[in-house]
Amino acid sequence: MIIGVPKEIKNHEYRVGLSPAAVREFKSYDHSVLVEENAGAGIGFSNQDYIDAGAEIIGSASEIFAKAEMIIKVKEPQAEECKMLREGQILYTYLHLAPDPQQTQLLVESGASCIAYETVSDNFGALPLLAPMSEVAGRMSIQAGAHYLEKAQGGNGTLLGGVPGVAPGKVLIIGGGVVGTNAAKMAIGLGADVTILDRSLPRLRQLDDIFSGQLRTVFSTADAIEYYASEADLVIGAVLIPGAAAPKLLTKDHIAKMKPGAVVVDVAIDQGGCFETATPTTHQSPVYVVDDVVHYCVANMPGGVARTSTLALNNATLPFGLAIANKGLKQALLDDKHLLNGLNVHQGKITYQAVYDALKNQLDLEYCAAETALDSIV
Ligand SMILES: NC(=O)C1=CN([C@@H]2O[C@H](COP(=O)(O)OP(=O)(O)OC[C@H]3O[C@@H](n4cnc5c(N)ncnc54)[C@H](O)[C@@H]3O)[C@@H](O)[C@H]2O)C=CC1
Ligand SMILES: CC(=O)C(=O)O
Ligand SMILES: [Mg+2]
C-alpha cells in the first residue's frame, strides 16, 4: 500500500503521523511511505532520518494526498486537507467529529473512509489510541494549571504544593479516566489537595485503591461539582462519553461562584468541552478570562510536547496501521471489531452512532452501521 504522511498544519502542531522507526516497520512489509518534506523537523526527525528508514520525501501535501492510498496523520484534517481526500482513500487520524459539523460535512463529501483514533476500542472497554495522548494531556494539565496560577499569568498566586506552614492549593478533577488519573498523579506529586469526581463507582473504587488516601474520590453530581469548584484553585475537565459531544458539567453559574484568579483547564475541549464557558484555544494563545477565572482550553495539548507525544502515539497506532496496510481496509476491519469501532465516516455515510446523534439535527447526514457499510468495498 502507498502510505502518505503530510506535515501537520494545525497551530503549533509539531507531531507527525509516523516516526522514522514506524516508517521502517511499514517498509519491512514492502509498503511505500511518502513523507512530506520537514514533516518531523520540529521534533528532531530530519528528512535524512526518514530517507534512512526507507521513506520518499515529497515536496507538497497535495502530491502526498494525490498519490497515497492511506493518509496517516495526528490531528483532525483541516478544511484544505479534507478537500484533498477522495473516494476509496483511507484517512487514519484523530477526528473528534461530534463538536465539528464543518469537518464532518467535508469528510462526508470526500467519500473517503475515515478512521478516528479516538473511537478505536479494546477488550478492556478502553480507547487504546486515545490513551497515550490522554496520559500526556492529563500530566500537562497540572503543569499548565500551576503556571497560570502564578500572579503574572492572571492566577490567584497559589503554589499548588504549598510550603511548610501554608496549606496546599486545591485541585478538582472532573472525570477519573486516563486524563484524570494522570492529572491526579502530577497534582499529588506536587503536594496539592486533590479531589476527583466520576460517575462510575467501579472507577472511583479503582482510584481509591491506586491512590490509597492520597486523594478524595467523590461521586459526580451537580451538587458535588458546585461545592468542590467553589473551593478549588484549579479545576481539570476530563470527562468523556466516547465519540459524543462532552456534557457541560461546570456551568456559567459555577464559574461565577469560583474564586477570582482560579484556573480551569478543559482537556475535554476536543470533544466540545465539559465547561459551559470553554471555547477552543491554541498553543499560541492558550488562555482567556471569564468572571475572573482563567480558562486554558487548548485542543491539541500533546502538540506542546510533540516529541514525547509522537513516540507515544506511534507505539499505539502502529499495529492497527500495519493491519490496514497489510490486509486492506475491508479485511482489517472485518478481522478486528475494535478497529471497526474506529470507522466514523465511509463513502459519504456516518458509521459511528454517537457522531450521528450529535450532528443529525445540524447536517443532512445518512447513518449506516460500520459492519454494513463495509459491504460496499469489493
Ligand atoms: N485537549 C487535548 O489535547 C486532549 C484531550 N483529550 C480528551 O480528554 C477527554 C478525556 O479522555 P480520557 O481520560 O482518555 O477518557 P476516559 O474514557 O479514560 O475517561 C473519561 C471518564 O469520564 C467519566 N465520566 C463520564 N461522564 C461523567 C460525568 N458526568 N461526571 C464525571 N465523570 C464522568 C467516565 O466514567 C470516565 O472515567 C476526552 O474528551 C479526550 O478526547 C485527550 C487527549 C488530549
Ligand atoms: C487527542 C487529541 O486531541 C490530541 O492528541 O491532540
Ligand atoms: Mg467569581
From TrEMBL:
Give EC number(s), comma-separated. 1.4.1.1
Residues in Alanine dehydrogenase/pyridine nucleotide transhydrogenase NAD(H)-binding domain copies: 149-297
Q: Identify the domain of life.
A: Bacteria
Looking up CDD domains in the UniProt record yields:
L-AlaDH
PANTHER family, alphabetized: ALANINE DEHYDROGENASE (PTHR42795)
Q: Which UniProt keywords apply?
A: NAD, Oxidoreductase
What is the name attached to this protein's record?
Alanine dehydrogenase
* SMART domains, alphabetized: AlaDh_PNT_C (SM01002), AlaDh_PNT_N (SM01003)
Where in this chain does the record put each Alanine dehydrogenase/pyridine nucleotide transhydrogenase N-terminal domain?
Answer: 4-137
Q: Which organism is it from?
A: Agaribacter flavus
Recorded family membership: Belongs to the AlaDH/PNT family.
* Catalytic reaction list: L-alanine + NAD(+) + H2O = pyruvate + NH4(+) + NADH + H(+)
Gene name as annotated: ald
**Which Pfam families is this protein grouped with?**
AlaDh_PNT_C, AlaDh_PNT_N
GO molecular function annotations of the record: alanine dehydrogenase activity
The first-level EC class reads oxidoreductase
